[in-house]
Amino acid sequence: MTEVHFRRIRALSLMVILGGTLFIARLAVLQISRGDAFEEVAALQYVAPASDSFSRGTIFFQNKDSGLPRTQAATIKSGFTLAINPLKIGNSQMLWDTLSPLLPPLEEGEFFLKAKGKDDSYEEIVRRLPRATKEAVEALHLPGVHFTEEHWRYYPSGLLAAHTLGFVGFDEDVRSGQYGVERYYDETLSRGSEGFRVNVFAEIFTTIGSALFYDSASSREGDIVLTIDREADRFLGNELDEALKKWGAQSGGGIIIHPRTGEIYAMEARPTFDPNTFGERNDYTIFKNPLVEDVFEMGSIMKPLTIAFGLDAGVITPRSTYYDTGVVKVGDADIANYDGKARGTTPIQEILNQSLNVGAVHVMQKIGTDTFARYMSDFGFGEETGIDLPNEVRGLVGNLNTKREVEFATASFGQGFAVTPISIVRALSAIANGGILVTPRVVDTIEYTLGSSKQVGYGDEKRVLKKETAEEVTRMLVETVDTALLGGTVKLPHWSIAAKTGTAQVVDTEGKYYEDKFLHSFFGYFPAFDPQFLVFLYIVDPHGATFASETLTGPFMDIAKFLLSYYTVPPDR
Q1: pLDDT of res. 183
Q2: Which is more confidently placed, 28 or 146?
Q3: 469 vs 453, more confident
Q4: CATH no. for residue 279?
Q5: Which is it for strands 59-62 and 222-229: parallel, antiparallel or unpaired?
Q6: Which of 117-131, 259-273, 397-411 has the lowest mean pLDDT?
Q7: Assigned domain for 154 exists
Q8: DSSP character for 121?
Q9: What's residue 403's pLDDT?
Q10: What confidence score (pLDDT) does residue 214 get?
Q11: DSSP labels, 50-100
Q12: Residues near 235 by Cβ (< 8 Å), separated by ≥ 6?
């Protein structure tokens, strides 16, 4: 090796030593002069909540005018979390005096408890701040005060369709849909990883990444378009609120459905909640959707089904009569009309017009218990409807498996068995649509992020009544509205409406009926012979009225008039 080579090696070595010395010196200066600041930033960057990366598919309300922009039912909103490093803030009283006028109301004691925590470098003070507040605080250059961007689920319409939508909450440290559409379609709406994010360089040198890493979402990600129409749902909710307030009822609900397709235009239950602030509620049972998850004895809205069974089985005709004694003994039980009065020879039509229990029992006895039970099974009582909402329960119809005739007698007028509101709506829709049992749904379309879309539909409809039977019952129900409902005073001259009321005793916790507590129900569809809507309403324990015709006829007719106008349905008579 020549002298030239040795000189080059010595020069290169000197350069490496000099560079290393300068690097170490710079590192030492940074550690001494700005070590605390870098330590603080590192502490904040190493592991922090992953709210800033949260994303989720959008849920849209249906819009009857397809040319107009759709309305968001659930989306993502962004803001900022203000956090402090108790090790760096200095005078906590001064910090409080400076921050509190700029921020939403804070609990002073909680703030000082966090500010004095000397064992933690990260304490969240307030979340979901707007950008203007963040910029105002940052302009003060307060030591130990930091902001992180965050995203959260937001429901622009507040209480509207809360039980249908559900909300997003935490399952351990992963956010997921907890109720309603958010839960049922969680796999479609979910996006990316959840839980915690880890600084990529920290992950290289530690094992924390493997403990906190989650897989990204699948190719089935998409947005959801509901069948729910925001304005129809809002009107339904307002009518329920007014009815509950007027009659002092403790709870209630309603459904508006297209009886031919199963599309649900509106679904509201009371009491309700705001999914934006669900965490403030202590009574978690309020999140349950009673229209799908609770069962009720529905009362006389069952009578049209009993008449339909009898007509379909050929044991009665619309012109049949029976002898009404006011009270009929079935086994050891005495079953009476609502007023206990006898009517003598009575047309079948009057079972609907006057809501006669004795007449319903007569029809059931003509059908026979075995055939009656078969029709009940065919109409889906005792099974799930298949609606695309979670936690659907089956009806309590086990008593129809017995041979006791009294169980079938009470069932003929809607007592002694309990079903979900969505189940009775499905069954009654079969009368409205010509005898077909459809599957109800609250989602119209899934729009996948990859560009394709899927129309939600089940295609498993089955015939449960002859078309002629359904048409005959419809004609009878139209006559009930035109001549008997509040004396025929509420009929619409240009639209035919088929409807029936129901009043049922409520069962207490011991399985006995209250003497003074009732459930009022009402259903109707229109235009009767080509129905676009079936409306179902119920309220529990109204005061100051005995029958559903008093409490729910008004709300039903208001809803009918709104829908006919809103959807510009042409007259049918």
Answers
A1: 97
A2: 146
A3: 469
A4: 3.40.710.10
A5: parallel
A6: 117-131
A7: no
A8: S
A9: 83
A10: 37
A11: GGGG--B--EEEE-SSTTSPPEEEEEEEEEEEEEE-TTT---HHHHHHHHT
A12: 266, 559, 562, 566
Environment class of residue 180 by beta-carbon count within 10 Å: exposed (0-12), middle (13-18) or buried (19+)?
Answer: buried
Count Cα atoms within 13 angstroms, Cβ side, for 479: 15
Residues with Cβ within 8 Å of residue 442, at least 6 apart in sequence: 164, 181, 226, 227, 228, 264, 267, 387, 388, 389
- Residue 292 contacts residue 389 (beta carbons within 8 Å): yes
The residue that leads in pLDDT, 176 or 36, is 176
- Quote the CA–CA distance of 499 and 478 in Å, as a whole number: 7
Helical (H) or strand (E) element with 330: strand 327-330
Domain count, the chain: 1
Residue 214 or 373, more confident: 373
Distance of alpha carbon 501 from alpha carbon 503, whole angstroms: 7
The per-residue pLDDT for 212 is 38
Asked, for residue 445, whether it belongs to a domain, the answer is: yes
Average pLDDT, the chain: 89
Nearest alpha-carbon partner for 158 in 145, 171, 167, 148: 167
Reading the block at residue 356, the tokens are 């006669």
Q: What one-letter code names the amino acid at 417?
A: F
The enclosing H or E element of 357 equals helix 357-367
Cβ atoms of residues 184 and 389 within 8 Å: yes
What is the average pLDDT across 451-455? 87
Q: Name the DSSP letter for residue 277.
A: G
Region class of 264: left (phi > 0), else alpha (psi between -120 and 50), else beta:
beta
- Give the model confidence (pLDDT) of 472-504 as tens digits: 999 999 999 999 999 999 999 999 999 999 999
End-to-end alpha-carbon separation of the chain, Å? 113
Containing structural domain, residue 493: 227-566
pLDDT at 30: 52
Contact 545, 322 (CB under 8 A): no
Q: Which residues contact 60 (CB under 8 A, 6 or more apart)?
A: 70, 71, 72, 73, 223, 224, 225, 226
Selection from 183, 271, 255, 154 nearest residue 563 by Cα: 255
Query: Are the C-beta atoms of 183 and 167 separated by less than 8 Å?
Result: no
In a domain, 390, yes or no: yes
Distance CA 138, CA 129 (A): 13
Is the distance from CB of 264 to CB of 95 less than 8 angstroms?
Answer: no
Structure tokens at 371: 């055939």
Residue 118: CB partners within 8 Å, gap ≥ 6?
86, 87
Note whether 427 and 381 are within 8 A (CB): yes
Count of other CB atoms within 10 angstroms of residue 308: 27
CA geometry: angle at 429 spanning 160 and 305, to 5°?
Answer: 125
Quote the CA–CA distance of 415 and 296 in Å, as a whole number. 9
Q: Which residues sit opposite 498 in a β-bridge? A: 525
Residue owning tokens 């100051």: 544
What residues have CB less than 8 Å from 511, skipping those under 6 apart?
none
Asked which of 4-18, 343-357, 509-523 is least confident by mean pLDDT, the reply is 4-18
Peptide bond into 347 cis (omega under 30): no
Residue 201 is predicted with a pLDDT of: 42
Q: Is the pLDDT of residue 36 over 60?
A: no
In a domain, 259, yes or no: yes
